Amino acid sequence: MVFRKIALGFIAVMMLVNIASSAFFWTSTNVNIDVGENGKAKVTEDINIFIQGNESLDTYEKAKRSLDMTMDKWRAQVGINDIRFHTNAKTVSPQNIKIFPSKAGNCDVLRGTCEAKITIEYDTNEPIFNISTNKTARTRFYKINRDVFLFDSAQSGEIAIPVQTSLTIVIPTRGVVTKIFPLPDNVADQASLNKQKEFKWLGSTILSGFEFQFEIVDSMEKEVTEFFAGWVEKIKENWGYFVLAFVAGAALYALYMLGVNTKKQKQGK
């Protein structure tokens, strides 16, 4: 009888140990914001997790195979609060949302542990950079909207990037940074800003007085093309395709006659 009680007690303890050892742990989050020339962005968020216990691994694999796992369901399934948007939906609502759970890797069979990554991809429906233009100089100015971020907040109200978290902002190829503060962790000095397109801040850090501005200068060819495109649209809106065709024909005839007269002048000489 005593032996039986000891055996039952041992089994109960082992069950508790097994339950306690089956869990999911957050390890890090990387937020990547790829900005387009329209100021909107494609956002990729990688949430890295640590899986402990075979039961937890089975739970993860079943969820991974499921076709209806939303972000909220993933957060509830693994109990990790950082599985969320790190941009403010009240400012830039996410759209075209996709979730990609990775295959569990770096597994230790003896310890029953694995690592995995849950990737959330989406587009912002509004610009995260406010844009102003200088038509004379053919320049567009971009200034970060600090309200788009949904990280922690410091007591001062500034954006606080937590430990084991990174924020990366990638600007368009033609963009040139004019102001950035505080200096990103992957930038050596102010002199190297003009050539760089990717900027990363690592937690734990407070973006005190956060500023990010860049500009894009359009070519003369682009300006001329946009001017005529706008002119064509106005004609179509006000007078229709018939007048547009007439104006286009007249322009072509004028060019033809100009070429004929130039040729005659050359022959006369």
Task: Describe what you observe in this structure.
The chain has about 270 residues and is of the alpha+beta class. It folds into 2 domains: about 25-215, Sandwich (Immunoglobulin-like), CATH 2.60.40; about 220-269. It has helices at about 1-20, 55-65, 70-80, 220-240, 240-269; strands at about 25-35, 40-50, 95-100, 105-110, 115-125, 130-135, 140-145, 150-155, 160, 165-170, 175-180, 200, 205, 210-215. Strand 6 and strand 7 (about 140-145) form a beta hairpin. It is extended. The relative contact order is 0.12. The model is unreliable at about 1-20 (pLDDT under 50).
Order of helices and strands: HEEHHEEEEEEEEEEEEHH
Give the total of beta strands: 14
- In helices, the fraction of residues equals 25-40%
Helix/sheet category: alpha+beta
- The radius of gyration over CA amounts to 30 Å
Q: What amount of the residues lies in strands?
A: 25-35%
Total DSSP helices: 5
What sort of overall outline do the alpha carbons produce when their principal axes are compared?
extended
Poorly predicted tracts of residues:
1-21
Report the CATH C-level class of the largest domain: Mainly Beta
